[in-house]
Every structure is written in structure tokens, then in C-alpha cells.
């Protein structure tokens, strides 16, 4: 079985700051990490490898520095790594990105057909959750998003049974390979890399692929291939810096609690009705 | 990214062949006969956009024929639709990407709406990403504001990016339809108007179950489960290391019970084995967005913050007046969670029961 895990190197969004004077993003010194949502998918791919045997290829599209994320994934147990990098890809939106990644997955399939593509549920920088479905649709793979558990997989019959988070419940789905899976966060815990994988990751000769190599059409990537345009970027109005501190007559817990509830209902008048309705319904 | 730029693309004129795309659509999300509230919120938003453009609001309702679906078509009109495309087929009973994507692609290509809106739910995001690909058009996720640039009648979809540090306005200029998803509770719920009238256009896609690879074996409703459902909770009470010892977590559960809330925890509590990781809120746990988030004994580490800071209202309780959590909570209370939590439980319990009797 051949599994491809698509990952993205992202700036640690928790550490991004806006320059107070120029209102621009201060990228300096912000560490690059593997998109945290991708790790749940990578771990699930590695678990399938442990369970039924698979070759796990990690794939990323990005600038040459994204190599660091691929080596990290190799050190965690991935077998191969492909860096899709080309200036022509710059400015790609999700439609163009899914097209470019699909061209690389098709290239990988030429020598070893791909059975499962894993993607992160979404990224922490773009937050779109669109690239996975884009890849599945282009490849004609069954699309399995927000998966909480892989219940069963059979390589003989090419069947897979999964649990999928949906609104109000969990769907248990049975489908066939090939498929594209995005894992819900918190569904597993990333393993620690083994020593020999770390050595292998350091020595591994990365496959670096260009647009020409995968055969992606120039008109369908980069700004040219992107239907969306960013017309304005601005800083949101900052909310009051600090919490409004609750004061009460005296410092008894009861007085503080009463003052806190008053403050909650003053800030969210609708909430009182919601809570009452809930209490009345016995929820 | 350099200086915040001026809106561009206002001068762009739509190519002639795309001018036939007209009307603002909402794909109405229903599962098992229940309409998701976000779809009604979107109908209200679509109404505003359509009025600005001088066009109609279309609602697409998909599912199996039956009284549930007919009721939902009526709801859609009451909440703002002029025309409902009622797409019925037994194959559409449960949501599955492939048949929904195939049908929606055909329906959009047949009726050519200029704007298509979906809820940013597990269904909406799954479907939107697929049909934007088959339709080869632009899709903007998780918008917080929608507007029309009247110069060229284009949709201006504004969304947060880089973890909410920036907002950007995104447009789809040379492609149609223009697609966007919006999270639940971002847009206001419109008033239902039963005097509204609208048309229902029936669509029969004539699907074959044999042509659908994915089968739904079972549906486990959340209300039949004991597992925490943090991601969808309206009220969450969370505890952190400040609780001191595992037994004190009971105080959090007690308050949650009175409020009909879910219980969340920080990562250290999961690592220490107090509770399972289904209750972990934060970067490697769940991202939540309740109406009320009560953080008890939580210092406010960034890993926790990114999972809950979008909550509508955050009340933080901490003994340390300089705790980081007071930097981003809306309401702060300096005190010991171990005494404040029981006091809150009592006080909430009294108020909710007193009001219930009065009401």
C-alpha cells in the first residue's frame, strides 16, 4: 500500500505579531513548524503502516526551506519525501494548490499507485480546509474528511471503514480505496521519532520536483491559476486589551459569584434566555 | 504582504459569458430532517446581498422526498428565499460527498447563480471544497463579513487569517459562481416571516445507489454518547492546573451540570491523567467557540488560548492578578477557583430555577 501525506510548513501562528506602526506582519524570528493538524494525519498514516504495512511518502509544496518539515516527517517514520517547489507556484490559492499537489501525486502514482492520500483537516495559517477536498475531487478519490477513527482496513478487498464527525453525530462509513482522508484534531498523539529514523532523515536525499517535472500546466498554477484575489488586508480592531475585572462588595465567594453572573448577563443578554431555555428543557 | 492595500479589482468588468450568472444561493444544510441554524442565518445574509444586487435569493434543499423536506422548503421561504430548489432522491438521504457534489455541480451549472453560500460546518466545508473544484471557481472559507462592491457587482468576502491577527477581503473576479462559507453564529439570525411567499422548483437528479462507492453503515447521535462534544458546545467550563488535584475537577463538573455545559481541560491535566483527551481544549486538542467559556485555574498558555480565544465571552478565574489569561479574557475574577466555582454553581442554580418559575 502506498500512502501519501500532504503537509505544509507554516509560521507558528501563535507567535505572529503585527508591527504597531506599519501594520504589517512581522515574520522575523517566527519559527516555522509542520502545520499541527497535519501531524494527526501523519500519525494515522504511520499507524496504518505499522498495522498493515505501507510505504509512506510525505509531500509538501513550498519554498526550498520547507525541506525542514519534510526531514522532520522522515524522522518520525515516513519513508520518502517530495518537495514540490517552483517560483511558478507562488501566489497559488487553494484551487491552484490542490491542482499542483495532484500533479505530484499522479507522478508518484506512476511508479507506485497511491491508495490513500492524507491531508491535514486545515492549516493554522490559511484555515481553509479546502485543499484536501480539492485533491480528492481531482483524483476522483473517495473523500473522507473530519475522520475520528479508522475502524478497519482490508487490503485484499480494498475496503476501509471509518468514523466521521458530522454535525450532531458520528457517521460510520464504509468505502473503497483509493481515498483521501483528513483526521480530526485530538484523535491520536504523534509518536516520538526513533533514533535510526532521525539518522536516516538527516542523510535522506530529498526528491525536489518542479512544475515542469510533474507536468502541471502553467496556466493553472500560481496567481494565474487562482480564481480568488486578495483585495484588501487589514488589522482587526483590537479588542479591549485586558479583561474587565469583577469587583464585589466584600471578597466573599458568594458576592464575587453574584457579581460575575451579573457581568456575564450584562455582556451577553441573550445568554440568560439561552441558559433558561436549557434549564427548562432539563438539558 | 506589505502595507495594507487599497481595495483592488473594483475596476474589473465581468466577461460577457459570465453575466448570465444571477441570484444569491444558500445550500441549506439538513441532516435527518433538522436544518442547521447556520443555513437560516445565511438566508438572512443572502437576502441583504440579493437586495443590494436587485436579484433573488435561492435556497437549495437536498434530501429524500418526505414531510421533513417539505417543511424545510417552507422554512427557507420564511427566512428569506424567493425560490427553493428542492432536490430529491433517496440516494441523498444521508450526506455523502460524491453524490452531493455531483448533484450540486449539475444544479449550479443548470441554474447559474452568481453567489453560493454554505455554512462552515463539517458538511459545508466538505461539500464546498469539492464543488468549487468541479466548478473551477473561487471559494473563501470561514467569512466573517460579506458585502457587494457595487462598481462591478462582485462579492467581497472578509475573513480572518494568520490565526486572527489579520483580516483579508477576498474576491473571485473572473469566475462564477462566487463561493463562500460562513461559520455558525457569525451572522445574525433573521426573523421568520410567514407572510413571505416563494416558488418551489423540483429537481429530480435520478441517482443510482450502485454508482455511490461510500455507504453509511451507522449514525451515532451525540446525545446517545457520553463522550464530550466540546466543538459544538454553547457553554464550556474548563479547569487547569490551578485546581490542584484531580478530585477538585468535580467542582468544574458541578458548575457545568447546572449550566448544561460541557467540561474542558488544559493539556497538563490530560497528561497527568485526570481525564481523557476528548476534553482537551487547545492547539493539540479541540478548538471551541462557545457563547460562554469559563476558565477556572487556567493561566492562559498560548497552546490553550488558540483553542478557545474565539469564544463569544470568556470569564477567567485565577488567584494570580497577573495571569496571562486576563490579557484576553473578557471578564476577570481574581480569586480561588476552589471557592468561586461552588459559589457560581449555587448562584447560577438559584437564578435559573427562580427565573424558570417566574417565567
From TrEMBL, chain A:
InterPro entries associated with the record: ET-Flavoprotein_bsu_CS, ETF_a/b_N, ETF_b, ETF_beta_N, Rossmann-like_a/b/a_fold
Pfam families the UniProt entry points to: ETF
Keyword Plastid included in the entry's annotation: no
The entry's keywords: Electron transport, Transport
Any one GO MF annotation of this record: electron transfer activity
Keyword Electron transport: yes
Residues covered by the Electron transfer flavoprotein alpha/beta-subunit N-terminal domain: 22-218
Endpoints of the signal sequence: none
Positions in coiled-coil regions: none
Family: Belongs to the ETF beta-subunit/FixA family.
The name this protein goes by in its record: Protein FixA
The species this protein was found in: Azospirillum doebereinerae
TrEMBL record, chain B:
UniProt cofactor(s): FAD
Gene Ontology BP term (one): fatty acid beta-oxidation using acyl-CoA dehydrogenase
InterPro entries registered for this protein in UniProt: DHS-like_NAD/FAD-binding_dom (IPR029035), ETF_a/b_N (IPR014730), ETF_a/FixB (IPR001308), ETF_alpha_N (IPR033947), ETF_asu_C (IPR014731), ETF_asu_C_CS (IPR018206), Rossmann-like_a/b/a_fold (IPR014729)
Pfam hit, one: ETF_alpha
The Electron transfer flavoprotein alpha/beta-subunit N-terminal domain, residue ranges: 24-216
Residues that hold FAD according to the record: 266-267, 280-284, 297-304, 318
Superkingdom of origin organism: Bacteria
UniProt cofactor note: Binds 1 FAD per dimer.
Keyword terms, alphabetized: Electron transport, FAD, Flavoprotein, Transport
Gene Ontology molecular function: any one: electron transfer activity
Similarity comment text for this entry: Belongs to the ETF alpha-subunit/FixB family.
Protein name (database record): Electron transfer flavoprotein subunit alpha/FixB family protein
Species in which this protein is naturally found: Azospirillum doebereinerae
Lineage per the UniProt record: Bacteria, Pseudomonadati, Pseudomonadota, Alphaproteobacteria, Rhodospirillales
